[in-house]
Design goal:
Homopolymer. By secondary structure, the chain is an alpha+beta fold. It has two domains: 38 residues, Orthogonal Bundle (GTP Cyclohydrolase I, Chain A, domain 1), CATH 1.10.286; 130 residues, GTP Cyclohydrolase I, domain 2. The protein is 39% helix and 25% strand. It has seven helices and seven strands, in the order ααββββαβαβαβαα. The strands form two sheets. It has a five-stranded mixed β-sheet with strand order 5-2-3-6-7, with helices on both faces. Helix 1 packs across helix 2 and helix 3 crosses helix 4. The longest helix is centred in the last third of the chain and has 16 residues. The chain is elongated and about 60 Å long.
């Protein structure tokens, strides 16, 4: 993991508190800079990590049918406003040549890519591209649906609005029946 400079973050948080007219030395805010620095270290823990590492171990299994892990909870921080967005990821692939990944690895890849200042679109395409590269499947389909706090608590202020992104690779891009199978299973 990339080293986070906690003292620098703490100083920056103190400066922000002062800039908005708060007193960083008041009781309720006294430890806020330390808490924020620790939180940033945690929520940005994906910096310096490569999601490809989760696909270093592949199992040999002659299964060339759909594998779908749906409703994977995730959260990330919008790189434009540094406020959270969160939701669910759905990851599907059709293995080829006996290359099957552990199911938890799909969730770990989503988690690692999301744990950095991010865009939802980038998480979606990065996970799909990594899986195509490392697993060489017939196809990959990644769908993320998330609520963005930058739309909920500021700007347009539309709580509950969901953003849906998809990345479709391989057979899912060319075969509407394969794509429809994933979409119908997501509705269940």
């Amino acid at each position: 993991m990339k080293e986070v400079n906690r003292p620098q973050i703490e100083e920056a948080v103190r400066m922000i508190l002062e800039a908005i007219g708060e007193d960083p030395s008041r009781e309720g805010l006294l430890d806020t800079p330390k808490r924020v620095a620790k939180m940033y270290e945690e929520v940005f823990s994906g910096l310096g990590k490569n999601p490809e590492e989760y696909f270093a171990t592949i199992f040999g299994e002659e299964h060339e049918e759909l594998v779908l892990v749906k409703d994977i909870p995730f959260f990330s921080m919008c790189e434009h406003h540094l406020v959270p967005f969160f939701g669910k990821a759905h990851v599907a692939y059709i293995p080829q040549n006996g290359k099957v990944a552990g199911l938890s690895k799909l969730a770990r890849a989503v988690e690692t890519v999301a744990a950095r200042p991010q865009l939802q679109e980038r998480i979606t395409s990065t996970v799909a591209n990594v899986m195509m590269k490392k697993l060489e499947p017939h196809g990959v389909m990644v769908i993320l649906e998330a609520e963005h706090m930058c739309m909920t608590m500021r700007g347009i202020k539309k709580p509950g609005a969901k953003t849906v992104t998809s990345a479709v690779r391989g057979i899912f891009a060319t075969d509407s029946q394969a794509r429809s199978e994933v979409l119908s299973l997501l509705k269940e």
